[in-house]
Amino acid sequence: MELKVGYKKTEVGVIPEDWDIYRLKDCLTSTPDYGINAPAVPFSDKLPVYIRITDITEDGRFSPENPVSVKRDDADKYYLDKGDLVFARTGASVGKSYLYDPTDAKLVFAGFLIRVKPDPSKLVPSYLAAYVTTGSYWNWVRLMSMRSGQPGINGNEYGQLSIPLPSTIAEQHAIAAALSDVGALLAKIGQLITKKRDIKQAAMQQLLTGKKRLPGFSGVWEVKRLGELGSFLKGSGVTKDQTLSGNLACVRYGEIYTRHNDYIKAFHSWISRDVAATATRIKYGDILFAGSGETKEEIGKCVAFVHDIEAYAGGDIVILRPEKADPLFLGYYLNTAPINRQKASRGQGDAVVHIGASALAAVEGRFPPNREQTAIAAVLSDMDAEIAALEARRDKTRDLKQGMMQELLTGRIRLV
Asked: What DSSP string runs through 339-370?
């Protein structure tokens, strides 16, 4: 393919003629160094906060599930400074990176991380942080880390990383700023999604227990067993190899755990007419329970089928076909903590836990009249729709950022 005028071909691809390729080691104020080898201790505000590989998210944020500290007399030698980046040097997470944000905490980095200190007169730290999320970088990581059975990249090898750089620091700053703006928008959308999920969770706790009633509703909720709501039947057939055999929608029990929540929004398995002949057809309003699972705590997770299409249920699914209940309400309500505790107490087995129709039929709940069930379900599904719209916006923005990085960090698009 003919090169565009003003561009040249390099080891990392086509870049502008006024850009150059630099080794990371030539853009640092010191050689890459390793973190402290010390055990984590319970978090204390009197001790430094510890950052380990597991505390770094896939998108490069410090987000520990449970913050921990480190206690050693020389821990202050391993504090991160503004502009520092750390890279995972071993294991499945090799290549993962984090640009230190002083607002996170005063952090000491662990021994399985490597720190680099960019020279800001040569390499803008946020520009480097953006570059090490690109496909070019991850291709380099895969090649560099495949030297032995245990993936790993040491400090000297990280120093060999090739980076395409504009001829001026000003252009690096401009590129980093543009990508940072999109990153900030992504973070804002993510925070809004978290907030909306928390609001929905609070609404579920209030509405599904009757602690809060919607306007126009009153009266006592009835205690009923699931067996009183309708009849039970079983799913059947459908192996993993058959899930892409045709164009008829199908739900497999494992997908209830991994793909669906509360009600089925989309299908992920499609079977042929021949396979469907041995499966169980489901109807609008059916509630599908996972009949097998790995733990008693998760056994019997369920989803409502609220589609008017031909669809089937595979094996290890227990189906409740309600006669006098709102299915969408049941999809939400039958996954709440009080119901889950009852399902867990009725689960059988250790390595693999099972629950059947008779056990599920004995589960008790408190149910409002059908009209109130429908109103509650409408409120919660509207919240779901709002969250789904935000998630779609987040995904679109993430794709936009990826496209911007591909164009800006290779110079295909130049900022004025």
From this structure: HHHHHHHH-B-SSSEE--HHHHHT-EEEE--H
| pTM of the shown model | 0.83
| pLDDT tens digits in sequence order for the chain, 416 residues long | 678 899 999 988 899 999 999 999 999 999 999 999 999 999 998 999 999 999 999 889 999 999 999 999 999 999 999 999 999 999 889 999 999 999 999 999 999 999 999 999 999 999 999 999 999 999 999 999 886 667 899 999 999 999 999 999 999 999 999 999 999 999 999 999 999 999 999 999 999 999 999 999 998 999 999 999 999 999 998 888 999 999 999 999 999 999 999 999 999 999 999 999 999 999 999 999 999 999 999 999 999 999 999 999 999 999 999 998 999 999 999 999 999 999 999 999 988 999 999 999 999 999 999 999 999 999 999 999 999 999 999 999 999 999 999 999 999 989 87
Give the contacts of 100 (CB within 8 A, at least 6 positions apart).
80, 81, 82, 83, 84, 85, 86, 107
> Residue 17 and residue 371: Cα distance in Å, rounded?
69
Closest CA to 323 of 358, 288, 287, 356: 287
